Structure formats: structure tokens, C-alpha cells
Amino acid sequence: MVDNDRSAAFTETGAPAGRFGGSRLLPVAAFTFTYLAAALVLGIARGNLEFLFYIAVMLILIGCVWLVDRSVSLKVVTLWGLSLWGLAHMAGGLLTVPESWPVSSPSRVLYTLWLIPERLKYDQVIHAYGFGITTWVCWQGLRSAIRRRGGSARPTFGLMVLAATAAIGFSALNEVVEFVATLLVPETNVGGYRNTGWDLVANMTGATIAATIIWLTARKGER
Fold this sequence. Notes:
Helix content: 55-70%
Radius of gyration: 18 Å
């Protein structure tokens, strides 16, 4: 039988596994800290306290990813995906859009942009993308834990449901962080209850799509 993990293109696009360090992650680390430094300068210049809070959260998350990578040896392409998610988040809260573009808020930052008027926002796409990547990270962690115990690391339907559910749980934690931001910063672009609800729907959609891709690709490899 073909090894499902090696036959699955979605889980096999990264560099060979290895510990965090050396030249393996220098490009993604340099890229990430470069845009964070630029976001910090721009946030301070604009007096944007909300994004100074988010940059601090980003630094904590980078530390968490470093710890996970030491244990799991995440695919480098996964780390790039996480880094690009961070960039999209920084851009979403700091870049403004032209007056003629449709937005959902007077603040006119990229996060409020309607990609499809009254139907789909930039914010929702980034949520779906980010927690799709998170599902991939959860699967790699779950697979590593199973292999260490000598078990089969096939992406079965049940395991993919577990990985997607874990990512959805992390997405709820993201909403908690946004709630904390509204308590600490007088004015934010977080939005109200309806916005939170649509964020959670987008998170679940991204997690479901990612889990489905991993599962279907592995089944194709078996055949």
C-alpha cells in the first residue's frame, strides 16, 4: 500500500522535516519580522493602539509556532502560509482603500472591503484562509503524535474531523483575542456580534475545505 502521508500532495509540499534552526527557516523568519517592523512603524505613526496590541499577539503566536515546529517539524510551506496570513492581517488593518471602493465601515481599511458587495468581505476570506492553514498545522501535529506511538498516520475521515475541529477551536480563541482588544482599545475595527458570527462561519469553512483536501488527496493516493 502507498504511504498516504507521502502520496498526499497537500501534505507533502514542504521541505524535508528538520528541527527549527539553521538556514531552514531564515527566509520566512526574515520576511515575517520585516513586515512586522513595517507594521509597527506605521501603527505608531498613526497612533493605532489596536494594531500595536495585535503585533504583540503576533509575537506570542510566533513563539508558539516555534515551539510546535521544534516538536513536529512543520513543513516549510506551512510556515510560509502562516507568515502570509500574518501579512494579510497586518495589511487588512493598516492599509486604506480608495473612496470609490465599497466598504462595510467608515474606517475604510482593507479589512472592511467588500469583495462581493454585501456578500463577501476581505476579512472573511482571510479568516477562511487562516484557519484552513491552522487545520493543516493541527493535522501535522496529530500525525506526528500518532507516529511517535507507532500508529498509522493515515488522514482518515475521523482524524480530519478532529483536525478541523481543533482549528475551529483555535478560531474561537481568535475571537476571544478580538474581544479583549475591544476592552483594551477604545475604538477598534473588530465589529459587532454579527461580524463575529460571520467570522466563525468563515473559519469553519476554511477548516472544512482544508480537511477535505487532505482527506481526498490521501484517498486518491491509495487508489
